[in-house]
Amino acid sequence: MSARITRADVEHVARLARLALTDDEIEGLRADLARILEYEDTLAGLDLADVPATAHPLALSNVLRDDERVSSLDRDEVLAAAPDHEDGRFRVPRILDEA
Amino acid sequence: MSASDLAALVRSGSRTAADVVDEHLGAIDDRDGEIGAFLHVMADGARAAAAEIDAVVARGGDPGPLAAVPIALKDNLCTRGIPTTCGSKILDGWRPPYTSTAVERAVAAGAIPIGKTNLDEFAMGSSTENSAFGPTRNPRDPSRVPGGSSGGSSASVAAGFAPLALGSDTGGSIRQPAALCGVVGVKPTYGAVSRYGLVAFASSLDQIGPFATTVADAALLLDAISGHDPRDSTSLSDGIPAVTPSLDDGVDGVRVGVVAELTQADGIQPRVREAVGAAAVALEKAGAEIVEMSLPSVVHALAAYYLIAPAEASSNLARYDGVRYGLRVEAEDVETMNARTRDAGFGAEVKRRIMLGTYALSAGYYDAYYAQAQRVRTLIAREFAASCDRCDVWIGATSPTTAFELGAKTQDPLTMYLNDVCTIPSNLTGAPAMSVPFGADGDDLPIGVQVLAQARAEPLMFRVARVLEESSP
């Protein structure tokens, strides 16, 4: 699975990761990812078909808690830390294309 | 002076908490300009906490086992109303609305938070050079790095700014800087210490743990902060056994595995190898049985880690989107705002890991990379478990090298990643491990020997560490 990383690959992943990379960053990351993924290819040759993937480092079973009301964080204090808010809610730029 | 001696003086009324705090704030004033361990010094808060402790003592009360001991906090531990930056511009100026459980418990035991310490941005790095606010320097030689990512915490303890510190360890970020600064650093069993209020990097690997100048002090702090917390569903329901009561029980009859992959691997400096060998001799003299062994799958730990950790990070760091806290770069529409905010707010290493993790999780690559890495993780855990019929604990190097010069490893990411080669296996398995200072190299730079134990076997791990501390050259 030797990874040949193209500029288009980096741009695609950057879009998924919501990173507006500069041209220089795209080229630098292309080279870095290619080099790191080449190292990661050392895992590809291992025959692990019979080994289950780790889901949790220790064998914990499901964790349940009592359904009790507890106080949550103070809304005004939380909103005060936001870049923008209005009427008790976070405010963001427009989401849909309409004006 | 050790944390336990300091606490004893304050509890007995022989010394005031105010005096203890002033002495440590003075040390920070004198030398932190050079070292750069702190991003934020909590001078007023520390003095106020000291006054409260002195009032408790004056009334005849007991402020706790860590009474008035200044503690430095890695700046990815949330502290209510106190800046918490994670070493990142994206959280510059943020003041959390709550405090992490580990910090609350240390404070409940009497410790006094004295400041927030520098770190590689979001704990991603091994030298503290990835901080958006500049590097921290090693108090043993300021031309060198303190290790990372908890370099500010290890440096603050090594420099005498605080007898205790808290850090977080995802791939070695407590143990490696402890080794490079010549202090004790512990990564407890996954789930031993609540992660509530620890800003998440890689949630299946992250664990909070102590730094101290002595094994006994690290034990005191671990006993104070460990235990179940309903606010972290991954915290162990029964916690871990207390480590302090059996600290001096010795190692007579304990079987110690010397792991070839953590001792002889390429890149481990000869003086570091010799230190591990000398540690084995010291343990044998103290009554332990030494078992030379190989755990071959450990050589794959680094490659597995650099898929799993970035994958989890890419998901965890999705929350920095310019909406709820921290930086926002304004734009016409929300997606452009998200993407510009993240490009402006994150540094190069964080972007590299987000990109790597997003790639490894993306359609068509998931099985080849992420799922394969999680199978390697099982393989390594099985190999450690299978070796338990031959030994009770394992030892090896903490860091392949002693402290290196600033800038020496910043050109190539893989070169920096190799610093974690000996510490990563314990994060993958969830088992505890700690670093103990054991001698120095030809430049008088400290060497750390790592003690690895089975899950929840911290008491035995600390007994081994205590013997190493007493026999350190």
Summarize the structure.
The complex is a heterodimer of chains A (99) and B (473). With 99 residues, chain A is mainly alpha-helical. Helix content of chain A is 34%, strand content 4%.
In angstroms, what separates the terminal alpha carbons of chain A?
45 Å
What's the average pLDDT of chain B? 97
Name the chain pair whose interface involves the most residues: A-B, 53 and 72 residues
Q: If you consult CATH, what is the topology of the domain at 7-43 in chain A?
A: Histone, subunit A
How would you characterize the largest beta sheet of chain A?
2 strands, antiparallel
Poorly predicted parts of chain B: none
Main pleated-sheet profile of chain B: 11 strands, mixed
Structural class of chain A: mainly alpha
What would your notes on this structure say?
The complex is a heterodimer of chains A (99) and B (473). Chain A has 99 residues and is mainly α. Chain A has a domain at 7-43: Histone, subunit A (Orthogonal Bundle), CATH 1.10.20. Helix content of chain A is 34%, strand content 4%. Chain A contains 3 helices and 2 strands; from the N terminus they run αααββ. A two-stranded antiparallel sheet of chain A has the order 1-2. In chain A, helix 1 packs across helix 2 (23-40). The mean pLDDT of chain A is 89. Chain B is α/β, with parallel strands linked by helices and 473 residues long. Chain B has a domain at 3-242: Amidase signature (AS) domain (Amidase signature (AS) enzymes), CATH 3.90.1300. Chain B is 38% helix and 13% strand. In chain B, a hairpin with a 5-residue loop joins strand 10 (433-440) and strand 11 (446-452). In chain B, helix 9 crosses helix 11. The longest helix of chain B has 20 residues, at 367-386. The model of chain B has no long low-confidence stretch (mean pLDDT 97). The chains are: A mainly alpha (99), B alpha/beta (473). Chains A and B meet through helix 1 and helix 2 of A and helix 9, helix 10, helix 11 and helix 12 of B.
